[in-house]
Amino acid sequence: MSSVVDSPVIATARRAREAAAELAPLPRAVRDRALLAIADALEARAQEIVTANGEDIERARAAGTAPGIIDRLTLTPQRVAAIASDVRDVVALPDPVGEVVRGSTLPNGLELRQVRVPLGVVGIIYEARPNVTVDAAALCLKSGNAVLLRGSSSAYSSNTAIVGVLRDAVVSAGVPADAVQLVPGESRESVRELMTARGLVDVLIPRGGASLIRTVVSESTVPVIETGVGNCHVYVDESADLDMAVRILVNSKAQRPSVCNSAETVLVHAAVAERFLPLALGALAEAGVTVHGDAAWCKAGEQAGVAVTEATDEDWAAEYLSLDIAAAVVDDLDAAVAHIRRWTSGHTEAIVARDTGAVRRFVARMDSATVMVNASTRFTDGGQFGFGAEIGISTQKLHARGPMGLPELTSTTYVVTGDGHTRE
Length: 424
Description:
The chain is built from 15 helices and 16 strands. By secondary structure, the protein is an alpha/beta fold. A 7-stranded parallel beta sheet has the order 10-9-11-8-7-12-13, sandwiched between helices. A 4-stranded parallel beta sheet has the order 5-4-3-6, sandwiched between helices. It has a 3-stranded antiparallel beta sheet with strand order 1-2-16, with no helix packed on it.
C-alpha cells in the first residue's frame, strides 16, 4: 500500500491550516504581542534584511531591470524602520475578530448572533515589493489568519530573510511559527500549486500588475479576491469649478503615477472644453504628463503649443502607471458615463461638478468600487480612508470591495444559543 507524499507547497499549506486552528482562538493581547515582537525584531535585524536585499538588487541590476522596479525592490535601514513603524500602527487598530455584526432574539427564544471570525489561511501572491511581505503578515496575524506568502523570484533573498525574522518573532510571543510561511520554490509551478490548493487555502489575494492578477483569477481553484488594476477616470462636468478641476486632475495623475489609484483618463463636458483644455494642457505639461487625446484635445494642443498624441482604443483601455493620460471631450454627462462603463476596471472614478443633480446622476450610474466627488482619485487608499492599513484594493463585488482593511480579512459565523430548543 503506497503512501502519497505531499509536495513542499502542499506540505506548507497543511502546516498553515494547522497553525490557523491554533491562532484563531488566541486573544487579541497575544496577537498584538506578536506584532510588537515583529516590529522590534525588524529593527534589531535590519542589517541582516538589508544584506539579503542587496543580493536581490545585484541580480536585478545584472538583469537590466528598470530603475523604478529596483527602487520598489530596495530596502534600506530607514525603510525597514518605517516598515516596523507601520506594524506598530497595525497593533493600535481595532480587532475585528469577535465583533457581533448583528444579533437578535428570535420569537422562539433562540439567541442569534453573527460574529466575525478569521478567514483561516490567506495566500498572498505579489511582485517585487518586499515590504508587502511584512504588511500582509501583520494584517493577517492581527485578524487571526495564517498567511502563505508568495513573492516574486526577484525578491526571494529579501523575502526569505524577512520571513525568518517574522517566524522567530511570533514564536517568542506564543504564536505558532507556521502562522507565517514563505511558499517554497521560485518557479511558476509553485504558484500553480498554491492556486489549486483548494481545501487547504481559504482565499488568495493577488497584488501586482494586470497580468499577474489575470493569471490568478483565471487559473485558481482557490477563491480569489481580485485587486488593484486601476483604469481610473476623472470627469469634468459643465458645472465644474475649472480651477478646482485642474488641481484635482493633476493630483490624480501626477502625484504618484505608478499606483493603481492614479487617473488614466480625463473626460471633459463639451460645454466647458474651450475654456478647460488650455488650462489642463498647460498644467499637465508642467507636471511632465503626456496627453493621448481625441481630435478636440489634439486641436487644443496645437493652439496651445503643447504636443498631444492621437488616442486609440488602446489608450482608453490602458492602465499606464506612468506620466501619460488619455483625454476626450464628451457631449454630456451621459456620454461620460457610457465611456467610463465601457472602459473602466471598476476601481475609482471622479466627478468634478457643482451641480448636485449631476453628481447624483453620476454616482448612481457608476459601477466602481469608489466614486470621488470633487476629490482626487488618489484618496482611494486604506490609510486615507482611516482604516489604518490595507491588504489591497478589491475591484470585485463579492465579500469585499474597495480598500480592504482588517474586517475584510474576516468571515462570519452564526452563533445560535438555545435552552433545550428542538424544532417541530
